[in-house]
Please model this.
Amino acid sequence: MAMARSTTPSATRKAPKAVTTVPQRLLAEATRLFAERGYDRTSVQEIVEAAGVTKGALYHYFGSKDDLLHEIYGRVLRLQLQRLEAIAGKPDPVEARLFEAAADVVVTSIANLDDTKIFFRSMHQLSPEKQKAVRADRRRYHEKFRALVEEGQSQGVFRPGLSPDLVVDYFFGSVHHLGTWYRHDGQMSAEQVATEYADLLLHSVRQP
Amino acid sequence: MAMARSTTPSATRKAPKAVTTVPQRLLAEATRLFAERGYDRTSVQEIVEAAGVTKGALYHYFGSKDDLLHEIYGRVLRLQLQRLEAIAGKPDPVEARLFEAAADVVVTSIANLDDTKIFFRSMHQLSPEKQKAVRADRRRYHEKFRALVEEGQSQGVFRPGLSPDLVVDYFFGSVHHLGTWYRHDGQMSAEQVATEYADLLLHSVRQP
DNA sequence: CGGCACACATACCGACCGGTATGCTGGCGG
DNA sequence: CCGCCAGCATACCGGTCGGTATGTGTGCCG
Model:
């Protein structure tokens, strides 16, 4: 129910002994463990041990285990929405903007692969209220992306028969799935995957 | 570790009083509950109550809660592989076979939407050994599908620059994602989605 | 120099949960 | 008609987990 119980210790603290603050470490370790073993299989005890603190610290900064997950979602969601808005607002032709937006979400999803894994495996484990909030944010992102498809259709450069919503769900399924198969030590770089994914999307919507 | 502990009560039983057997009901209710609340959040107590029996019955037919999940996976995996092989073996041109295979996996995924949801949310909760077995089966399916893409490329009807593996991962991401957004009471029929998804795939791989 | 609030550590609790050991019963083979 | 075994039901256990109440040190403010 509650978020952080106290004020976040600001960087104005006199001695910058530690480069990472305790809440930062908690979030980072939680992300790692959630991606590795899943939300339910990760105990708060494991999280605090990995972060080198105790439960007292965790419940000092976060209201519940649930809050940790919500915060992880919020971070990646804000990042992706912000980048999409920047790209969509450029003066480039719609084809270039859709390509760039598609490639960008692939690159950032791979850069934060743990968050991506967690997102689509654990979202239903949030409390109903927080789930609703996340869905609302997700929907804003979806609509921003869909607007690009619709703009291309109205300009006649994208095929008119397609349902823009379906196209967006189609593409983001592929993006969400990245966490399942992509390996950082594999043969393909994030940019290679991004380029090819964006290429596949453009070819499927472009007017022949 | 163990599968069913005793022989499945065959249909040869004299009195066909119940149309559904106990293990069938257990599997059906488990599927429903796993899709609804997730694997870890569903207790075996809830499953047996939904099926109208007790834990004694469940552990009489299944070795563990894990076995239930594995059996659910096995069912949908066998079904989809069988259908893919039938389609891939037809004498039609490769474009038509890829289209039909793509549309078919969408239709069957929607028809068994609960299984699809469970598959990609709970696979990592299986024991390592069973997870390995499922991955192997999944890989066989993937390769069968990839062979269709490669065949089209060698015939010159599909674009040569694409990585067949990436194309398959791309498409199946979309398919797995269906469980997240598709609603049976929504506006689109399974066939509509299937046709449009297959159309998007073909447009992205076909030689212009 | 006091005291007080922040930032944690320690200790502990009640609620489950997966699994098992054992009890009961009806039908079928001999 | 009898025994026995498949097919469950009942009772129970050890372990774990999220969360909380309370203790404690320490640096900043007055």
